[in-house]
Automatic annotation (TrEMBL):
The chain crosses the membrane at residues 36-56, 62-84, 264-289. It comes from the Bacteria. Its main location: membrane. One of its GO terms (molecular function) is ATP binding. SMART domains: AAA. It is found in: Cell membrane. It comes from Isoptericola peretonis. This is ABC transporter ATP-binding protein/permease. Keywords: ATP-binding, Membrane, Nucleotide-binding, Transmembrane, Transmembrane helix. The lineage of its organism: Bacteria, Bacillati, Actinomycetota, Actinomycetes, Micrococcales. Gene3D superfamilies: ABC transporter type 1, transmembrane domain, P-loop containing nucleotide triphosphate hydrolases.
Amino acid sequence: MRRKALTSGIDQPLLDGQRPVRSVLRLLATQPRRMTVALAAFAVKETPLWFLPVITGAVIDIVAGGGTVASVLLWFALAVALLAQNYPNHIVYTRNFMTVVRGTGAALRNALVERLQALSIGYYSRASSAVVQSKVVRDVENVELMLQQVTHPLLSATMVMIGAITMTAIKVPEFLPVYALAIPTALLIRRTMTRRSQARNEEFRREIEGFSSRVGEMASLIPVTRAHGLERTAASRVADGAEEVRRAALRLDLLNGRVASVSWVAMQLLGVCCLVLAAIVSLTGVIAVTPGEVVLLSTYFGLLTQGLTQVLNLVPVTARGVESVRSIAEVLAEPDLERNEGRRHVGEVRGRLRLERVSHRYPEASQDALHDVDLEVREGETVAFVGPSGSGKSTLLNLVLGFVRPTSGRVLLDGADMAELDLRTVRRSVSVVPQESVLFEGTVRENVAYGLDTAGEDGAATDARVRAALRDANALEFVDALPDGWDTVVGQQGARLSGGQRQRLAIARALVRDPRILFLDEATSALDPEAEATVRDALDRLMRDRTTLVVAHRLSTVRAADRIVVLEHGAVVEVGSHDDLLRRDGRYAALHAAQSGAA
């Protein structure tokens, strides 16, 4: 229920970047019972803070007026009772409030992850993975830290203020106007500093995100950097980012220091003024104030100014947390979604594809990446796309996968416009084998069975499917030879395997899903001839009786395709079999001759 509260309204998220404070209150209000219990326990546990000055003043007046020991002991017993209840109520408060805070953090992360899964591929072409990671990890942590560090002193100052005003109204009501000085002063300081603090925190957050992006790029480019002896260049580039972060952080620290100093001086000065005023009033007899009441008033004002100082000193933490709320809201409010909700579910895919006058132009591009493409792919047919770099091959695959939408025209699957289909249900019948196989830090079995719907299957049936897929992908022999068989951890990105082994696992992952449509994107271009032959044999087995779209630069890999589509400048210039296209002596024949000559 908690998770649903944050993620169900994904188009109208709870977090509003324009009203971050209100957004935080909405988050806390998603668990009203726990928050009510937490606030009640806090109010009770904080009773000693505002009632002990009453006891202190009463004891002083007993001593000054020559009272009895029994009277002192009575007040002492009350003080002990008030102090003793603090522990159990503090535990109740902590358990309930921190459950809300940690639950809010987990729900925010879940909401971010679900939103990230719903965003289009275009979003990820613009956003660095390091920046996305920073939002999910660092920004949510900042929100949790803000709630954890700000709430206690804010509530404490509120309780002290209520208690102080109440008891002063009972004891010395004439002194109430003095309290009116502290709160407006604190609010004025907060208003003055918050706007500048917000700007500094936004600047710092942007610098951190940029720096995270540079570090991510550096890590991904390590092999290139090392191969070309560019270590110093890479380190210098990251160092420049670190220097910008340092400058932004220092400017923020200096502003926070000014906030802390101004807050402390202002509140302490008010506290001293209150003490002097109470003493003068008592000595002059303008108002009948006992020595105990002088102590009570001074203590209350001291507690109030101390609480307000703590709250003001938390302006930096609050500003950082509020900026993180804005950062999270950027993702939750991002409109570039792959919209599937409410569209028709697809129960069965046969694999017939048709592109009707399809064009696509990327944002800010001056011309179409694909222009006016008409093409039909029959069920079970293998169609290869060839052409020079930039001819539109990958764009065409992305259109059929639904990663991008046609600027004009339609893509039909089994006669239905894909714009009207829930693509998540379509992709259950689709497998992709990319040029660079994507493996995660896990075992061979976990990588092959990734995302496998095993509902209704027992473990033995699943294992049988995985083993059959490994065998058909020509991977079983090397997997069985690994130290722990298919329980061997492959390392990040499959670092402990060769390129051919990684690609065969990618093929096994595709096989185990038993897809109706298969996409091969330069699946063998990065392999040596021996590894390519082994992978090619596995691919032939994978492609059998499936609709297959192949993108390839090396024409030797597409000879067996039913049809070859030649693309140039985003347009289809030739279509036919390998032999037919060679006989035409057109663009394909020229490409073939160029590659044969280079070989």
